[in-house]
Design goal:
homodimer; 250 residues; alpha+beta; six-stranded mixed β-sheet; three-stranded antiparallel β-sheet; 6 helices
Chain lengths: 250, 250
């Protein structure tokens, strides 16, 4: 609903390790630009998980029999499969090729329950999703306020596949400060007709937009969005998770 | 993968009517900014459909018995339901409340087969999706080249719901010029590890990003994306439609 937006991948965020003060990294990286209260910071899940210590050394994992069997069948690491099963509240599909799609305790439906080997520094570890990504976003926002005096909204992003469409897109798994869903129902559209069923998942669109500026190859895990006219809200990205009884695709 | 992007909703696009030269509207609206070959223009499906005459007067529609029954049961317009059935290659779900989720001939799985009453000027008509949205995008791109000398990439967007998540997001139903899917498999990530399963649906992310700058309430159907380093491709957004036999959620 804004007419001009700018997306800037913040430079110079170092490799994040457990216990690091991620907000300080972000504040330092944004110092040249200057954070504003009306900005949005989109931060990838990976660096949030690392800072929060949601990292498991694979050597410490004892795979159950089911994990060993699945891993053997598809050439996976049984310790990773074990972590996926641990992080899953419910298995949605165990698919050809070894992919496991599950629903996490947060209600997120995604591949491998968000357990990720691909981008962890020493190669023998996995990152898990934050325990409560909305709390992670709130804490990051508060700490940024302490460090910089500005409290931009915060979105924590992760890349998810979707049914029916190829490729992954970034979605919001956590947020703080902004309305994750923008409800336009009842407002007139351009033709003056009342819109019936238009609730926009703005936090997801912010996450996707940020992926165009940051991205997986470049080490650019934080993107500043300037010019998006968000409205304040106490809701987090948990509001994006559909209630099971409303879902047409349980 | 770019580090700084700008999104600008083009001002002054008039109400589009069947037969209008949409490319000329866009060229005029972008004259102040100046189009470049490396820009992306994200255009909403609605104005493309209108320009192409994909508009049906409801008075001309004869609903079949099934459409009348479904409409009566859920308080819908039977003529709209008839158009939804006509535009569907396959019904995926007919849900509580009257929502029909179907697969269109393009392979798109969406609500009401893209048939939309909400935003048509005179109120007694419906817009249908373009017959071949990738061709629409190619034609728009070529005509822009003729009019302006610049051939930015073109993405045609529409708003879709998703399983498991609340709210709608914009996705790409058509595209021309750019790689709709960016395949990072085999490239090293920030930790030097080869990425295994990372194909990014960049055209969808562009569509979502544009929705933040344009939007349904404002009459801003065209958004210019500047600074996104897309790669040229002959593929269209049809490449985003998953083959039925690869899909885990048929």
């Amino acid at each position: 609903m804004s007419e001009r937006l700018e997306l800037v991948a913040l430079p110079g965020i170092p490799e994040v390790r457990p216990g690091d003060d991620l907000a300080r990294f972000i504040a330092d990286a944004a110092a040249g630009i200057g954070l504003r209260d009306d900005d949005v910071l989109v931060v990838t899940q990976k660096v949030v998980s690392k800072a929060e210590g949601r990292v498991v050394e694979l050597a410490s994992v004892q795979p159950r029999e089911e994990a060993r069997a699945w891993a053997a069948r598809w050439g996976k690491d049984p310790r990773q499969v074990e972590l996926v099963l641990q992080e899953s509240a419910e298995i949605v599909r165990m698919a050809e090729g070894g992919l496991i799609i599950s629903r996490t305790r947060h209600g997120l439906v995604c591949a491998n329950a968000g357990v990720d080997l691909s981008n962890v520094g020493d190669g023998e570890a996995a990152t898990l999703l934050p325990v409560e990504p909305d709390r992670s976003a709130r804490e990051l926002r508060e700490r940024l306020g302490t460090l910089t005096g500005a409290q931009p909204a915060v979105v924590i992003s992760d890349s998810f596949g979707r049914p029916w469409r190829n490729g992954i897109v970034n979605v919001a798994i956590g947020s703080a400060g902004l309305e994750p869903l923008v409800d336009l129902r009842g407002q007139p559209d351009a033709a003056g007709r009342e819109m019936q069923a238009t609730v926009i998942a703005a936090a997801d669109e912010l996450a996707s937009a940020a992926d165009l500026a940051g991205g997986k190859v470049a080490q650019l895990p934080v993107v500043l969005v300037r010019g998006y006219a968000w409205r304040p809200s106490d809701d987090g990205a948990a509001a994006l998770v559909m209630d099971r009884d409303r879902d047409l695709f349980p």
